[in-house]
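FW: tagging you since you asked about this chain on Friday. Here's the raw sequence from the shared folder, copied in full. Didn't touch anything.
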Amino acid sequence: MGVSYRFPTFLVFNTLMPQDMQQELTRLCEQVQAARDNNTPLSIIGGNTKAFYGEPNPPGETLDMSNYRGILSYEPSELVITARAGTRVQEIEATLAEKGQMLAFEPPRFGAEGTLGGAIASGLSGPRRMAVGSTSDFVLGARLLDSKGNLMAFGGEVMKNVAGYDVSRLLTGSMGSLGPIVELSVKVLPLPEYECTHELALDLPTALATMNDWRAQPLPISATAWVRTEAGQKAGILRVRLSGSQAAVNAAESVIGGEVLEAAPAKEFWDSLRDQKHAVFAQRPLWRLSVPPTTPDLALGESLVEWNGGLRWVASDLPAAALRQTAQDAGGHATLYRYDNLPAETTVFHPLSAVIDTINQRLMEQLDPAGIFRPGRLLPAV
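HL: got it, structure written out here
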């Protein structure tokens, strides 16, 4: 298990921790210690923009991380930024943009208050994930609190990591169950030199086949999305975002075909997917299916398809067991992403295999033997 951590020695924004941040960190440590002493579960929040996500109404006293904020270091030439967990994603992206860089995994920005810690704890990635990798691929190092209120450090600020559990990456999607994230070092990437979006009128089976054909070619595709044009109809629009040097993008355009979407509506569309403002995200219940891209149309309900077919947003009233079995038979899993009322005997997240569940429980017990960070957000409260 990794325990190495070092503060950066380049472009340090705060060489010494400001007094207000020291006081805030002390407050967090003391609240955790008190919760452990009193056997009080803690519900960890940052900007609270993703309160809808996870099991409903987790019990516990609120541990608010949003005031522990600020960029600690940023070295553009090393493609690494280190920040406190409460730092707003918008602040980080504005800082990166000044140097022509970005958070390539495109974490959803549910609002101005969204934090870096929340982005990693939720593990959600945006449209560019299909080209660059998932959120966990960008986490280099982290500091978190254990249930004794002690700071623990994992990973570092370079791509090499230590042997054992790569805890810094396991924090991705942990929903706070391993402890409150205090600081993070994440890899960043340059902004693309040039981008354009093409759209093609295709039904879903044809769109899936087309995307899989593109996967076998060296095309600079950074995002794909198929959207049905009218409810109940088979016809739809496949949009494809090309990113890279202008020469590479121009060469790919003849392969992709279709019509070029103007820059402003193209940006609006991809932002609507990243920030989940597209109309499909208003539907309830909404399922998030992760399946192999080669999976054919599952015909489960109204769908929006991303990531070359690997991500299926499905609005469906089918029983959870039937829907999850379909996803599992395809080699994937299904999450009940948004809902008004959680059906009886239904969990939000796809049940883990026995082996993975055992590893998960052991890790949580190692970092949180008191069980105060597991009030029911990731797993149902017991």
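FW: Residues 1-15, 158-164 have pLDDT under 50 and may be disordered.
HL: agreed, and DSSP finds ten helices and 17 strands in the chain.
FW: great, closing this out.
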